[in-house]
């Protein structure tokens, strides 16, 4: 595995691989890797000639009061895990390399990004879209693998790739969970033991919604109330519990086509998200 920090060098390497007719798979991450990230790398490795992964804690997707400086980092551990996962090129740029002095161009999605996490994290998806657009131009992949845990991000980036005609296939990988159901996340390490025990409420709420849906319930408010009831028994505060159209992310009242059930809950140690799709 080769570690590359320069965007120009990474792009040159990718161009050389493509000239040789090789298929490039790409997994973008912010590091502090866990089994969820590794599952995406294994999925990509199985279907490409060259696997590129990136580790970049993107400053432009963090708000003024968010955890950029405290975001967990462990490059030596991440490097080892990438090698074991079969990564060929690990792109590890600095913020100064990715955002040159005077940077003034942004990619802003205006339909899917204004709801859910976009409401409480203004500017977040502008940062996400901009950095991923840059990474796609740098790594030049045939396909990119993204996790389904970040459901809104997955849909926003699919829309960006579609609307800006990126010649890239978006492949999704399932959410990887702890034995008790909590979705794997780099932010889980922020949780105190008592918060960690309570954090399973997100998964329990989704399971309750699935149970009600399987029993024939189709009213969104009934499902939402059942989820909120479970979360309110914990120290977590609800950022949002929403049931939205799986494609447009617009709220629905009655479930008569596929919907995304999306949750965000704030604990003193961390803000956690989770989701499930019903009706597919």
From TrEMBL:
InterPro entries: Pantoate_ligase, Pantoate_ligase_C, Rossmann-like_a/b/a_fold. Belongs to the pantothenate synthetase family. The active site is at residue 37. The gene is panC. Keywords: ATP-binding, Cytoplasm, Ligase, Nucleotide-binding, Pantothenate biosynthesis. This is Pantothenate synthetase. It comes from the Bacteria. NCBIfam families: panC. Its EC number is 6.3.2.1. It is an enzyme of class 6 (ligase). Pathway: Cofactor biosynthesis; (R)-pantothenate biosynthesis; (R)-pantothenate from (R)-pantoate and beta-alanine: step 1/1. It catalyses: (R)-pantoate + beta-alanine + ATP = (R)-pantothenate + AMP + diphosphate + H(+). The keyword Lipid biosynthesis does not apply. Homodimer. It is found in: Cytoplasm. Catalyzes the condensation of pantoate with beta-alanine in an ATP-dependent reaction via a pantoyl-adenylate intermediate. (R)-pantoate binds at residues 61, 153. One of its GO terms (biological process) is pantothenate biosynthetic process. PANTHER family: CYTIDYLATE KINASE/PANTOATE-BETA-ALANINE LIGASE, PANTOATE--BETA-ALANINE LIGASE. ATP binds at residues 30-37, 147-150, 176, 184-187. GO terms for molecular function: ATP binding; pantoate-beta-alanine ligase activity. GO terms for cellular component: cytosol.
């Amino acid at each position: 595995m080769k570690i590359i920090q320069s965007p120009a060098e990474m792009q040159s390497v990718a161009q050389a691989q493509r000239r040789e007719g090789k298929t490039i798979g790409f997994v973008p991450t912010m590091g502090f890797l866990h089994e969820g990230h590794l599952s995406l790398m294994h999925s990509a490795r199985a279907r490409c000639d060259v696997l590129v992964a990136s580790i970049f804690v993107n400053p432009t997707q963090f708000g003024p009061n968010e955890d950029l400086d405290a975001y967990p980092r462990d490059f030596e551990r991440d490097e080892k895990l990438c090698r074991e996962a079969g990564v060929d090129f690990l792109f590890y740029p600095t913020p100064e390399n990715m955002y040159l002095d005077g940077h003034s161009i942004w990619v802003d999605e205006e339909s899917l990004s204004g709801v859910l996490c976009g409401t409480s994290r203004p500017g977040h998806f502008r940062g996400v879209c901009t950095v991923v657009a840059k990474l796609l131009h740098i790594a030049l992949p045939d396909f990119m693998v993204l996790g389904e845990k970040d459901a809104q991000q997955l849909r926003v980036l699919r829309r960006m790739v579609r609307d800006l005609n990126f010649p890239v296939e978006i492949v999704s990988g399932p959410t990887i969970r702890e034995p008790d159901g909590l979705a794997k996340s780099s932010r889980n390490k922020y949780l105190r033991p008592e918060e960690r025990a309570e954090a399973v409420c997100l998964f329990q709420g989704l399971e309750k919604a699935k149970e009600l849906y399987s029993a024939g319930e189709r009213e969104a408010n009934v499902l939402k109330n059942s989820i909120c009831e479970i979360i309110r028994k914990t120290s977590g505060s609800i950022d949002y519990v929403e049931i939205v159209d799986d494609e447009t992310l617009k709220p629905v009242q009655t479930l008569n086509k596929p919907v995304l059930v999306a949750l965000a809950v704030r604990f003193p140690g961390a803000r956690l998200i989770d989701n499930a799709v019903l009706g597919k």
